[in-house]
Model the fold of this input.
Amino acid sequence: MSLVNQVVQKAICRGYLTAEAEQTLCKYISDHCNLHDVTALTMLQRAMLSGQVKRLSQRHQQPNLA
Done:
C-alpha cells in the first residue's frame, strides 16, 4: 500500500485529516503520483465533501495555552 493510500485510509478511519498528513500528501504527490494514488485522493475528497472526514488546521492541533 502506498503512502498516499495509508494517509487516506487513516484519515477516513479517524474522521479527520491532520495538517501534517495534508503536508505529507502534498509533498509526496509533487514527487510521485500514480493511478492508485489518484484513486485514493478521490476517495479522500469524496469523504471530505460528504462530511465523513474533517480537515484540521494547524491552529486546531496546537494546545490551548489560554
